[in-house]
Amino acid sequence: MSSVSVKDLSLNFGHISVLKDLNLDIAEGEFLVLLGPSGCGKSTLLNCIAGLLDISDGQIFIKGKNVTWEEPKDRGIGMVFQSYALYPQMTVKGNLTFGLKNAGVAKDEIERRVARTADILQIQPLLERKPSQLSGGQRQRVAIGRALVRDVDVFLFDEPLSNLDAKLRSELRVEIKRLHQKLANTMIYVTHDQIEALTLADRIAVMKGGLIQQLDTPHAIYNHPVNRFVAGFIGSPGMNFLEGQLETGAGAVVKIGNMPVPIDRYVFSGSSQQHTGATVLGIRPEHIAFGDGAGAMPFSHEVDIEIVEPMGSDTLVWTRLDGQSLSFRVEAERPLQAGDRVRIGFDPARASLFDSATGNRI
Amino acid sequence: MSDHAALNVAAAGFDAIAEEVSGPRGAKPRRVLSRRNIFLYGTLILIAVYYLLPLYVMFVTSLKGMPEIRLGNIFAPPVEITFEPWVKAWATACTGLNCDGLSRGFWNSVRITVPSVIVSIIIASVNGYALANWRFKGADIFFIILIVGAFIPYQVMIYPIVIILREMGLYGSLWGLVIVHSIFGMPILTLLFRNYFASVPEELFKAARVDGAGFWAIYFKIMLPMALPIFVVAIILQVTGIWNDFLFGVIYTKPDTYPMTVQLNNIVNSVQGVKEYNVNMAATILTGLVPLIVYFASGRLFVRGIAAGAVKG
């Protein structure tokens, strides 16, 4: 049985359609990340699931129960917000118990749950403090505790780490993952940070313009993006896109300028094998081989280095292939300089081909 | 208080740093009597004196006897201080048939102001909260109508309200005036509260809803405790506005229920007999005392409340 299920959900603000016929099934205990740029509707979708926004059309089920018109408190959800949203005039304990008191939970049960939550999140010493006396990381811990203490089936996270600095963010990220492994609750997590998405998710839903572009495992989204948007959005530094012509038949190739890239090992999606014409070849910087390994690749070519960007653990090198900008990654130890002429190569089986006109994977 | 504490802490920290750094210590020396300071404070003092002069005249006149006033030197301090005018203004000055001074008007004003302030602020704060946080259908239209109401000239509404109050049987009573004040305070107060509550992060409201709090629970447990500054602003606006009101008081009440301002006018403008300037001055100061006290007592909170989102929105 799916834990959360969204059927044909639409949401309009006036004449503006924010979410369009969304369908989503989230399994029991799954960690689903909604990922997308600002304004793609990911937070809006989360608010709809939480019951904080009335939807225009469709249905929402949680644990098999139709909750489309239920109040947020009756949906069995806990929510964590970007700005923490702690009640400033209450102590940490007051924040944790506010929902329980509203629900009329017995006093000793409240004490038991607060103790357990404080134990899991290690916030016992903070219980009597006010939110203003806490650091950002502590505040977000308490905010997570407020969802935890309600003993709910589904956790909703609305960009919970975006207000924290980089170091704290990675710490709390691990903590959230640990929490998920321990509790095995269903979690829906909204973020625009692909690192968070890739590290936390069982499945990622990449959204754009109120539509889910791709819903799949992080591995599949990274390696087999369904369109140019997903391909470009995931991965840092971003995927290279090379314009070319696809020529099928015996020994199918993509011609980048006049260089033929053999694609006989490329796995076409569905029935698009017959496709010919303008095509975009996408290849990730980390999938481009350099130096000795390059010659062994099905496709290799000599290029001039334009720019070298050292990034600490490795170095990003910019060059041109048929006049089109291309970047690739090398180990930081390689002594490279702008103007060097080197051989690079890649295996087209690791590339992605997109229709130039539609941007869809072929 | 807290500001001082913070300053002390900061100062202590600064000293600690200063001790580690060799060289001259302490604040940068500044000449007190620089040309800039003389000009600046000279101007400020001059303007302050100019503004305070009428108050001074009122005060010294109210402490003089009539013979001394007739000498005509209004700036001279009283030779013989007497509190007789104050007593008379408060307790025995005559307006019409009543000869119990301003005291009657004072208590009338209290009985008008207190319920008006309470009623209008309670309603307006709930209004503002609902408009800011519960985006009900037609909220925008409702809000626009309310604000437009603030721009309709009073004169247009005076006579219709007389008729309405007469039909309700409240014309001439204190309660009639309380209703009028509450209604006229509504647009500006609702705007004030709406803007304040709109500045409260929306996620706080959402979190409370997920926690199962309803309309009133969120209002009382989340919003009210955070809204103290804006309540102080609203109370000051309403107390001074209603206390100083003359127009509604003179129209919607009758001599027995006249508020203090109307009664003051009747004392000062009485045409029979000798003009008792000292009594008039004492009566005027007495009437203005309440708003003055309110301002002095809550000035800092007032400024903080105004700054805390009253104009944001």
From TrEMBL, chain A:
NCBIfam families: PRK11650.1. PANTHER family: ABC TRANSPORTER ATP-BINDING PROTEIN, MALTODEXTRIN IMPORT ATP-BINDING PROTEIN MSMX. It is a peripheral membrane protein. Keywords: ATP-binding, Nucleotide-binding, Transport. It is found in: Cell inner membrane. GO terms for cellular component: ATP-binding cassette (ABC) transporter complex, substrate-binding subunit-containing. Its main location: membrane. One of its GO terms (molecular function) is ABC-type transporter activity. Belongs to the ABC transporter superfamily. GO terms for biological process: carbohydrate transport. SUPFAM superfamilies: MOP-like, P-loop containing nucleoside triphosphate hydrolases. Residues 4-234 form the ABC transporter domain. This is Sugar ABC transporter ATP-binding protein. The keyword Amino-acid biosynthesis does not apply. It comes from the Bacteria.
TrEMBL record, chain B:
It comes from the Bacteria. It is found in: Cell membrane. GO terms for biological process: transmembrane transport. Its main location: membrane. The chain crosses the membrane at residues 38-59, 112-132, 141-162, 174-193, 214-237, 279-297. Gene3D superfamilies: MetI-like (1.10.3720.10). It is a multi-pass membrane protein. PROSITE patterns: ABC_TM1. Keywords: Membrane, Sugar transport, Transmembrane, Transmembrane helix, Transport. Residues 106-298 form the ABC transmembrane type-1 domain. One of its GO terms (cellular component) is plasma membrane. Belongs to the binding-protein-dependent transport system permease family. This is Permease of ABC sugar transporter.
